[in-house]
Amino acid sequence: MPQLFDVAIVGSGPAGAAAAIHAARAGHSVALLDSAEFPRDKTCGDGLTPRAMHQLDLLGIKVNPSYRNHGLKLHGYGGSVTAPWPDTYPTNEGTALPRHEFDALLVREAVAAGATLIHGTATAPELAGNRIVSFSVVDGSGATDTMKARWIIVADGVRSTFGKQLGRTWHKDEVYGIAARSYSSSPRASEGWMHSHVELKDADGVVQPGYGWIFPLGAELGQVNIGLGALSTKSRPAKINTKKLLETYAAQQRAEWGLGPVEKVASAALPMGGAVSTVAGANWMLIGDAAACVNPLNGEGIDYGLETAAMAVSLLGGKDFTLVWPDRLRAAYGEAFVLARTAARLLTYPQFLPVAGPVALRGPVGRMLMPAAARLMGNLITDEDRDLIARAWKLAGHGVAWARRDTPLWS
Ligand SMILES: Cc1cc2nc3c(=O)[nH]c(=O)nc-3n(C[C@H](O)[C@H](O)[C@H](O)COP(=O)(O)OP(=O)(O)OC[C@H]3O[C@@H](n4cnc5c(N)ncnc54)[C@H](O)[C@@H]3O)c2cc1C
């Protein structure tokens, strides 16, 4: 007999687990699937900005309560800028927690809310038109079960193996990220700022097209997440070996941060800014990384995973998601993501940062604009904000979205 649920959720990362919590709390019967057993690692910077914190507050979940950060410190080209989280957003605190712990915490909350956790890989959707009738779940031993649900939320991450079987396509001619992360002990693990180094040099001192980060994880863990990322497009792929450059970056920062050896070095790609198509059918929706809901300007996707989870669950009960879901995503993020994608594209030109970096981090223009960097990079501007920076950002968003109206955006 096939298993029958109101909602089946494929993938139990932050997006899937949050969808399971929302759906179970709304009274639906929920199957939460993952091919991995939790706790499991996920290559990530582990940073939670106010956007993510706000969603976690709405879920009533406390994360790493003994550690909070207050914004970004950007370094490079002979300058440094401190950019605090804005007071205008519902919360002005961030934190960080290794995904090994964070994701397991959310999955426990989902189970506590009533979701049934199932260990297995979702595959082979059986379709009637673009409606999923059933799909197979293959467990570790190779045994196959059939799953049926009224609605299916697909939260299977960057590669979206299940989403691909439904037609999800990733447009790599738009900007995407490649990144590596690791962990290291540091006496500065309790420092309340996320740090980013935008002048990244290889072992020969040559500036590389990317940025490094050091995200403290709090005194209890005594560690920092140290990593680096670069932006690419199919026609201008970032020609860097992220893992090797990470070792060099860590060596450059070792004295200042008192770093121990780097551990658990891992790399991954990031889809960004909604550059995927076919994200919904009659009874299914893609959320989180599967729908490329990652901010191109700072690489954060946990917050968008949590947000798209809440948005998708709020639509359950509706008739057909095929057009409704991409429309909903475009209304929420379209302009901000296209603007961020367009700005991020500049970073794929090797000449851009060496020219713009000194202006932004040292000159008078930078002194005026860069304190707002955390707000702009983190897309922490709400619909209600009416100040000059918010107005200018929104105006730029309208303009760029209009100019690039044919760019792939969940379509
Ligand atoms: C190096 C790096 C650094 C990053 N740093 C940050 C950061 O500091 N802050 C931030 O907000 N974001 C960061 N991101 C982005 C962030 O990691 C992702 O946006 C986030 O993990 C998306 O969550 P998700 O739930 O959509 O997907 P995932 O977390 O990838 O979860 C997907 C889950 O689906 C499961 N799965 C896949 N296929 C199937 C299947 N067929 N059947 C069943 N289960 C399946 C997987 O096992 C996995 O558990 C970073 C990404 C990278 C690569």
TrEMBL record:
Residues 6-313 form the FAD-binding domain. InterPro entries: FAD-bd (IPR002938), FAD/NAD-bd_sf (IPR036188), Geranylgeranyl_Rdtase_fam (IPR011777), Geranylgeranyl_reductase (IPR050407). It holds the Pfam family FAD_binding_3. Coiled coil: none annotated. GO terms for molecular function: FAD binding; oxidoreductase activity, acting on the CH-CH group of donors, NAD or NADP as acceptor. This is Geranylgeranyl reductase family protein. It comes from Corynebacterium phoceense.
